[in-house]
Amino acid sequence: MPSEISPGTRLRVWERATEWPLTGAAVIFLGVYAWEILTNAQGAAKETAELVIGAVWALFGVDYLVRLVLAPSRGRWFLHHLPDLAIIVLPILRPLRLLRLVTLVSIMQRSAGTALRGRITLYTVGSAALLIFTSALAVLEAERHEPGSSIRSFGQALWWALTTFSTVGYGDSVPVSTQGRFIAALLMIGGVALAGVVTATLASWIVSLVEEENAEQEAATQAQVAALQQQVSELSERIDRLLEERGLGR
User: Fold this and answer.
1) What's the confidence (pLDDT) of residue 115?
2) Is the Cβ–Cβ distance between 105 and 27 less than 8 Å?
3) Which of 87, 120, 148, 160 could staple 173 via S-S, CB 3.0–4.6 A?
């Protein structure tokens, strides 16, 4: 009789089965959230958008609970996924719901094939673009109606996100709300982390180029040595034949 399926196997099956549906839900989430913020939706339109966002958020909550139940070691899995729980249950971390959009990056990453450097590059570029865009939306939502705020439009929010992500921070746009500063802190941490990934990837690429060049030079040198050896051998044979002919002639 076949053995019972292990909890770890069930968890992996669930994650594979829900990957694309959750990715689709993340796309819907981003689209509706961006529309709500960019249009400054009010009244029934805002309520409808919040209803869709809440439904998607509930879907991710159900996914969290199912994965917790299917985990082979629930206590260990729970401790390793505390940020997921905090994002779901703590209202102050509401902007972090956008982190669920990393499922989009993981799908794009696979399209880069098996080359590690290509996957890292796509992951880095996708993560940076997604982080900057969603941070601009989140800070605009937090700062738009705050007294004394300098972030009133999406253009200003996007400029702020770019300068904050790159840790340049010109200071021309500064969040004044607690939620806005919280988003800024997370964006700076994300910018530093991704900058480290970019630096490491670039260093790896340069090292690989040097190694390839050295390998090509070594191969060329070996080919030249082999050619010289062949020429020396041919010259030796000719000298031997000439000596033999002279010896016979005598």
Assistant:
1) 55
2) no
3) 160
Contact between 140 and 56 under an 8 Å Cβ cutoff? The reply is no
Distance CA 145, CA 32 (A): 20
Residue 1: count other Cβ atoms within 10 Å of its Cβ: 3
Paired tokens of 144:
């738009």
The length of the chain is 250
Determine the Cα–Cα distance for residues 19 and 23; give it in Å rounded to an integer.
Answer: 6
At a CB cut-off of 8 Å and minimum separation 6, what does 191 contact?
131, 164, 165, 166, 167
Classify residue 207 by burial, with Cβ atoms within 10 Å: 0-12, 13-18, 19+.
Answer: exposed
Q: What is the distance between the alpha carbons of residues 48 and 152, in angstroms, rounded to a whole number?
A: 23
Q: In whole angstroms, what is the distance from residue 57 CA to residue 80 CA?
A: 20
End-to-end CA distance of the chain: 94
Residue type, 101: L
The tens digit of pLDDT for each residue in 186-244 reads 888 888 887 777 677 667 767 776 776 666 677 767 777 777 777 777 777 777 777 77
Contact 83, 102 (CB under 8 A): no
pLDDT digits (tens, 9 = 90+) for 143-169: 998 998 889 999 999 999 998 888 776
> How far is residue 121's CA from residue 55's CA, in Å, rounded to a whole number?
33
List strand residue ranges (DSSP E) for 33-99, in order: none
Q: Which two tokens stand for residue 190?
A: 């994300």
